[in-house]
From TrEMBL, chains A, B:
Binding-site positions, Mg(2+) 1: T51, D52, D129
Chain residues that bind Mg(2+) 3: D36, D81, D232
UniProt GO molecular function: ATP binding; magnesium ion binding; thiamine-phosphate kinase activity
Protein name: Thiamine-monophosphate kinase
Keyword entries, A-Z: ATP-binding, Kinase, Magnesium, Metal-binding, Nucleotide-binding, Thiamine biosynthesis, Transferase
Taxonomy of the source species: Bacteria, Pseudomonadati, Bacteroidota, Bacteroidia, Bacteroidales
Function: Catalyzes the ATP-dependent phosphorylation of thiamine-monophosphate (TMP) to form thiamine-pyrophosphate (TPP), the active form of vitamin B1.
Record-listed Mg(2+) 5 binding positions: D235
Reactions mediated catalytically: thiamine phosphate + ATP = thiamine diphosphate + ADP
Domain PurM-like N-terminal: 34-145
């Protein structure tokens, strides 16, 4: 495979080369890459801003993550934060730090993934920074989106009888990660080993190429449902429930048998002798939406595909309870992923 | 000195601890830290967005850069990009990656510097990301600002007879860096050596604690001068002139004896046997403003303190010329700092 050294381009040449294919798709983008700052127009909308820093060895392992997938995922996880405010992502900036290990072709793969995400979700690349790094790859993305006055959904609006809803299924991305980690160890011991990925495509895709729930935000909009509180599930359901409960000054009851779980994830958990419920509660990286709606919206929600009602909010003094399959109550604790621990 | 391990806080605890002192100063900040995204209101203004990634060992050396200064500088260089669009910085997000080498007290210093910059320039901290890093410190800042319709200044508007103006003086930050590098080597050879910084406070301050030219943007506004093109000088005057000339499809003539240079920088350059003009043209990190104005504004500009007219734009076929002290013409080449070379 061809290898072009990054030093063959200057900084500005490299940026131009990598970003040329990105097309501007939004009217709100007045000026993108190429000046001291980008210029946006958000006259009748609120501006939403979110940011993420991804570091090699902490957030991703290039042994099993293809660079194109990494680029796609790095963009999509930021879009997910904007959807979680009931907004629409519109622009993003991308800064990267790259060590000498990486070639121009590597970065082309990374940016191809980001471009795919931008096209699919209608987001414009408007700026960034490209620099050398002493070790590995660093990716910092900031996403800007629009929200409508009165329709923006925070974490602090859940009422004490509201229904708790979850999209898609939980724990699959975590089981996909466990599979990849296992195969990495197998491969390290025997480099002739072929990875055993048959019938596991779903959990792999959930880990390597997650999607943001744009479809759900559009569906809720169509059906005229505005959640009372919402966030995306990136650190595990338990951790996110704690944020919503503490910011809304409420408690919650979640029913174990209502938590949506995919069959492949169950099989993988059994094979690895792990608890799939623990994975669903604490696994992280699902990028599904957790939201609450008032009881009045029950009839609408119950007919919507891809949304599960997993419990309800309570008074704060009742705490955060998980109700097990036998009716037993367990206090929920956030044990989600934390790079600083 | 006390050392608290970062792991003693969780991610959310750490963010709260570090950002508690930052006060919201702008009406446009509807919601800052604490949700999936921040919420801003920019109804009658355009939104400006700029971003920077700073990596230890590439962009800064903690052997001689105090963390408080680093925090201040990291924020200010982003504000400078917003001023360079004739805008006002209003919000910023800060993401950091930190290795185990750093304590909570270290991060307190870093954030104290950023807080000082935010207070001085009226900018709100609205979000970010805090993560572990395998090696060293990574800082990614995105700054959001406001610009007025019709008053935003790009790089591409310079007319072919416009005057070229520069604020402050150039090359001092680079000479400050050279001094710090020299003292680092002296100290490595003899750790009892005391750094020789007497009478060099100005060039050190220019390197360690630069300011953004908010004052100049306000002065121009007061005098009703809207530059035709503008950018900040972060990579050296030559490199920035090339951007303005190529984007404005014009050439330029800059006069060596008009380039503003500080006395301490001249002394330092002589001592190190370097050319101060080369430092001014290619040194970088000055964070002064380079802008062009139409000839009609000559009378206004010439009376303004802190602004030097260093030359004028020309037809593109005349190229980029530096006119030396003896009247000789030298073609300008960008040799500014480039981490990717």
């Amino acid at each position: 495979m061809q290898r072009t050294e990054i030093s063959a381009y200057g900084e500005f040449g490299l940026i131009k080369h990598l970003t040329d294919k990105f097309k501007i798709q939004n009217e709100s983008t007045l000026k993108g890459i190429g000046d001291d700052a980008a210029v946006l127009s958000y006259e009748n909308k609120k501006v939403l801003v979110t940011t993420d820093l991804l570091l090699e060895g902490i957030h991703f392992d290039l042994v099993y993550v293809p660079l194109m997938h990494l680029g796609y995922k790095a963009a999509v996880v930021n879009f997910s934060d904007i959807y979680a405010m009931n907004g629409q992502p519109k622009q993003m900036t991308v800064s990267i730090g790259v060590s000498k290990r990486f070639s121009v072709e590597d970065l082309e793969q990374l940016y191809a993934g980001m471009e795919l995400a931008c096209k699919k979700y209608g987001v414009d690349l408007i700026g960034g920074d490209t620099s050398a790094s002493l070790t590995g790859l660093a990716i910092s993305i900031t996403c800007i989106g629009e929200g409508e006055e009165g329709k923006i959904v925070y974490r602090n609006g859940a009422g004490q009888t509201d229904l708790i809803c979850v999209t898609g299924d939980l724990g699959s991305a975590y089981m996909g990660l466990q599979l990849l980690e296992r195969e990495k160890i197998v491969f390290a011991a025997n480099d002739q080993a072929q990875p055993d990925f048959e019938g596991r495509d779903y959990i792999l895709q959930r880990q390597l190429k997650p999607e943001a729930r744009k479809d759900i935000i559009e569906l809720l909009h169509e059906k005229n449902v505005v959640p009372t509180a919402m966030m995306d599930i990136s650190d595990g359901l338990s951790s996110e429930l704690m944020h919503i409960c503490s910011q809304s000054n409420a408690g919650c009851r979640v029913y174990e048998d209502k938590i949506p779980i995919n069959y492949q994830a169950v099989v993988m958990a059994e094979e690895l002798n792990m608890s799939i419920v623990t994975a669903a509660l604490n696994g992280g990286e699902d990028y599904e939406l957790l939201f609450t709606v008032s009881l009045e919206d029950y009839d609408k929600i119950v007919t919507m595909e891809g949304i599960a009602i997993v419990g309800h909010m309570t008074k704060p003094e009742l705490g955060l309870q998980l109700v097990g399959r036998e009716g037993e109550e367990i206090e929920l604790k956030a044990q989600g992923w934390n790079s600083l621990k």
